[in-house]
Amino acid sequence: MSLQPALHQPFLQQVEKYLFILLLLMVTCFFTWSENILITRAIKLIGRNGVLLGSIYLYRRVRAYGIPGSAKGHNVLSVTFYVAYLLLGFASFLWSTNVGVSGLQWFMTCQSFVFAYFFIKTIQLIDQYFPGHKIKLYQLLGNTVFYLILIFVIGMWAAPDVFYRLTHGGEEARLGGYIMNPNELGMLAGVGVACLIFNFYHAHRMVWTAIQLLIIFYALYATGSRSSLIGALLIIFFHVMQSDHRQIKGLILVGMMLITPVAVWKVVLKDGDSSRLEEVMSMTGRLPFWTALINEGLPREPLLGFGFMRIDYKEYFQSTHTYPGKMTHNTFMQVLMNLGFVGLTLVFFQMLFTMRGILSAVKEKKLMLIGILIPIIINSLTEFGIFGESNYGILFYQLVIFSISFQAREFLTTSEKIGLARRQAVAGIK
């Protein structure tokens, strides 16, 4: 039993608008919009809580419209292992080297987890009862990324002192400023590319989508993020290989072959600067840092780690030959240090069952979720990542998890049938 989208357009348009606003606000709350720590905390805590309550309200509003909450669990092991990871993180408060930091990080991760649940559950209900509707997760995510990136592109010209971050002793300016780490901003751009590119599959506003992608790629170049550039190129290559049109596939591949060497030379190798080449070989000092973590830090707490989002007994881990670090710049190393081998085992199986669920999904959903995963997994190898300190990469991964975790229930209860029939009668359906 379903409803005809054409007869419920005002309702569906309103739901789509609220979904977009909620997602935009949630991602926005991960940015540091002010150097004032009180304002930042207010945005990140009060703002996120408000958006979380908004997602619950929207879900209840959809239900109040007469839509049954008829869904059953699907790929439950993916969610089960993620919950187990959170429970271990909560238990780690007992041995954390800083309970305040662990508690705050755990709370924010759980906060986005609950938001992702209600957000995706709302879309799942719309999918089930309004077949053929126009609300798409990839458009919601893609447009969210675009408008946030647009703020930075405008800001880089209007207020460069705010939106640029100087690195390498002031020799290099990278888009992001104090508002967002350039590599994280590059990852956001990659997610935008992965989502908006789906508009070409459906010939949806193709000219406008091309303009959006050009702006996003411009911002990606301005971030100077090597890993994000690689991620974006992989996304394009991945989608090109799905195409059945050999001529289009060939033209795009030729274009990539021409653009990629220039992009790699400019962004990855930094015009062949020998000092930058050394950076690439050591992954900007990360390889020596990871080596020291394994050799010196891990043996101290190998089984259960130092506590959720903690990597040492002190605030910073520092070896004799490495820089001091508060985080590992690798999400899997981060899990190993803060929850030990027990935590890493949970994460391994969680990702295994998530990938199994993605690969078993219908083609469009599978392509969309793999596309989203490409930039956030690459980012996870060099930055905060999907199991690191609270960031929107975690939120995107949680959205992916719940996107494969619901399945329509075959039978409705009597009260659910009555409510749906009443909604049909209100819409004039006989």
From TrEMBL:
Subcellular localization: Membrane
Ranges that cross the membrane: 20-39, 76-97, 103-120, 140-159, 185-201, 213-238, 250-269, 331-355, 367-388
A single GO molecular function term of this UniProt record: ligase activity
InterPro entries with a match to the protein in the record: O-antigen_ligase-rel_domated, WaaL-like
Bilayer topology annotation: Multi-pass membrane protein
Keyword Membrane: yes
Sorted UniProt keywords: Ligase, Membrane, Transmembrane, Transmembrane helix
Sequence ranges assigned to domain O-antigen ligase-related in this UniProt record: 213-347
Gene Ontology CC: one annotated term: membrane
Coiled coil segments of this chain: none
PANTHER family (UniProt xref): LIPOPOLYSACCHARIDE BIOSYNTHESIS PROTEIN PA4999-RELATED, TEICHURONIC ACID BIOSYNTHESIS PROTEIN TUAE
Name the record gives this protein: O-antigen ligase
Organism of derivation: Neolewinella agarilytica
